[in-house]
Every structure is written in C-alpha cells, then in structure tokens.
Amino acid sequence: MSEYPTDENFTIRYIHPAPRALVFACLTTPEHLTHFWGPAGMHTPVQNIVVDLRPGGAFETTMVNNHSGDEHTMRAVYVKVDAPAFLSWRETDSGVLTELTFVDRSDGTTEVITTQRGLPPEMRTPAARAGWGTALERAADYIASIATKESAS
C-alpha cells in the first residue's frame, strides 16, 4: 500500500490476492459491500446499500456508527462502468469523484488504484484519509478471505 496525497486528490493502491472479476464483484455487489463498507467503527447493513451499476445509476450507502447508532449517508451517481477494469462515481453532496482502476497482474492478483478527486477541505484531513484507509483495509481483508475460500473449494 502507498499513498500520494495532494491538496484535492488522494490515491491509494492495494494488491488483492484474487482475480480481477472477483475483486470487481466484491466492490460492486451489496452482499459483498455489507462486509466492509465504511471506516473502522462503522458498518453498513445490506438493506442500506443501493447499487445501480450503470452510468447514471445510483450508488448509495448509509453507514451506521457501531457505538452511537448515528447514520451517515453517501449518495453518488456512477459516471463510468467498464467491468471489470474501471469504475467511477461522483458523490452528489460533495462533488468528489472516486475512480477505481482494476489491473490484472497476470499472477492471480489484482491491483486496485483508488483515486478521489476534488476533495473539499474537510475531506483532506489526515483523519479523513485515515478513515478511507481503514475502509480500504477492511475491503482488502474481506477480499482475501473470499479468495481463500474460493481457492479451497
């Protein structure tokens, strides 16, 4: 994992021990997303996830704080869907554009390059970036567990 923060952009890379199609499915299917969507200390029930996977389709999640029960909803619209190579969405409240590039490394692993563009000042803080980092770490742990189960069967 490496980070290359700038003022308005944030890029983070993960190499997942799974084929590209599985990684793409995990990052676009509510039944998978419910296992990791949100930073540490939050969870997202499957009924709180809307995925209409097409350009112009909705991507919405309502995360729930594990301790207080407070909810945080993220509403976005998919901008580009090129399964299983590329995915992007724009958040309707903040205008942040999130882009995910899925690179097949030809060794059974997939590199996912996640870039957020146009971050407003409140989303540029180390705490905000750390929150995104924990969400991506949770995704990496989940994808690795799924890949292990699929290779054992």
What does this structure look like?
This protein has 153 residues and is of the alpha+beta class. It contains three helices and eight strands, in the order E-H-H-E-E-E-E-E-E-E-H. It is globular, with a radius of gyration of 15 Å.
Summarize the structure.
Pfam families: AHSA1. The chain has 153 residues and is of the alpha+beta class.
- Largest beta-sheet details: 8 strands, antiparallel
Q: Helix fraction?
A: 10-25%
Number of strands: 8
Order of helices and strands: EHHEEEEEEEH
Counted by DSSP, the helix tally is: 3
Give the integer mean of the pLDDT values. Answer: 92
Low-confidence stretches: none
- The N- to C-terminal Cα distance equals 29 Å
Structural class by sheet pairing and helices: alpha+beta
Shape label:
globular
Radius of gyration: 15 Å
Organism: Saxibacter everestensis
Family: Belongs to the AHA1 family.
InterPro entries: ASHA1/2-like_C, START-like_dom_sf
Protein name: SRPBCC domain-containing protein
Topology:
Elements: E1 9-16, H1 20-26, H2 30-33, E2 42-43, E3 49-51, E4 58-65, E5 71-82, E6 86-91, E7 97-104, E8 110-117, H3 126-152
Antiparallel strand pairs: 1-8, 2-4, 3-4, 4-5, 5-6, 6-7, 7-8
Structural key phrases:
single chain; 153 residues; alpha+beta; 8-stranded antiparallel sheet; 3 helices; 8 strands; globular; START-like_dom_sf; ASHA1/2-like_C; SRPBCC domain-containing protein
